[in-house]
TrEMBL record:
Pfam families: PseudoU_synth_2 (PF00849), S4 (PF01479). GO terms for biological process: enzyme-directed rRNA pseudouridine synthesis. Residues 8-72 form the RNA-binding S4 domain. This is Pseudouridine synthase. Signal peptide: none annotated. InterPro entries: PsdUridine_s_RsuA/RluB/E/F_cat, PsdUridine_synth_cat_dom_sf, PsdUridine_synth_RsuA/RluA, PsdUridine_synth_RsuA/RluB/E/F, PsdUridine_synth_RsuA/RluB_CS, RsuA_PseudoU_synthase, S4_RNA-bd, S4_RNA-bd_sf. GO terms for cellular component: cytosol. Its EC number is 5.4.99.-.
Length: 252
């Protein structure tokens, strides 16, 4: 395994091989599905050397897959998982011509559309999802009710949801339809808790009817229709590796 330099944590080696995210690799180890030099290993933090043979489900890891990065405009009615016990379509079904075993970075709800990054680079995936990275996620929500900037003010300070106070959000009213009594609201957050945007807007009295993530870090959906995806450019990958997540074109 020439890709292993000196000693590295077992879960990192598995993630770098494109078999799972770092967290998923930890689960594989705990479940007893990983062996080192023919011996089952279930202890997290185990370190392996270049000369060691690591196998998952009895299949040796012979080297890292080529790292790939895709941006998907997720359509409605698709789950953000690698497989679904209910038999619903997953985001991997859309990327069915990608030979590498990629997985989504974070998640979007079944009925939420928009920007979703998929990769087999466990290191970058974990860095993007770590709270300290504070990666901006830009959402456009169609909500019930005619919202005003004052109505949304609590979101800029943080609101309590299930015992947790949300981080201050950047939020604005984009438009109001007085006839249908709905509003379009733009919300920028860097947290990623389950149903967070929907819960935040419901908290201030504006239930979400439709939700779209228009941007993830500096990655937007320009040129991508729902269900379409593209490879990231070399420059975009370099920015992710440099942890340069800002969009310099946007003024906030």
């Amino acid at each position: 395994m020439s890709e292993i330099q000196n000693e590295e944590r077992l879960q990192k080696v598995i993630a770098q091989a494109g078999l799972a995210s770092r967290r998923g690799a930890e689960a594989l180890i705990v479940e007893g599905r990983v062996s080192v030099n023919g011996q089952q290993v279930k202890e997290l933090g185990t370190k392996v050397r270049r000369s060691d043979t690591v196998a998952v489900d009895g299949v040796p890891i012979e080297g890292r897959e080529r790292l790939v990065y895709y941006l998907l405009n997720k359509p409605r009615g698709v789950v953000t998982t690698t497989q679904d016990e209910k038999g619903r379509a997953t985001v991997l079904d859309i990327l069915d011509d990608v030979s590498q075993r990629v997985y989504p970075v974070g998640r979007l709800d079944y009925d939420t559309t928009g920007a979703l990054l998929l990769t087999n680079d466990g290191t970058i995936a974990n860095e993007l999802m770590h709270p300290k990275s504070k990666v901006d996620k830009v959402y456009i929500a169609k909500v019930k009710g005619m919202a005003t900037e004052n109505d949304l003010l609590p979101l800029k300070k943080g609101v309590m949801i299930e015992g947790h106070k949300t981080q201050p959000a950047r939020v604005s009213v984009e438009s109001v339809d007085k006839t249908k009594k709905t509003s379009m609201v733009k919300l920028i957050i860097h947290e990623g808790k389950n149903h967070q945007v929907k819960n935040m807007l419901a908290k201030v009295g504006f239930p979400v009817e439709k939700l779209k993530r228009e941007q993830y870090a500096f990655l937007d959906l320009v040129g991508l229709q729902p269900g379409e995806y593209r490879k990231l450019t070399n420059a975009e990958v370099s920015r992710l590796k440099a942890k340069d997540y800002k969009n310099y074109r946007r003024k906030h």
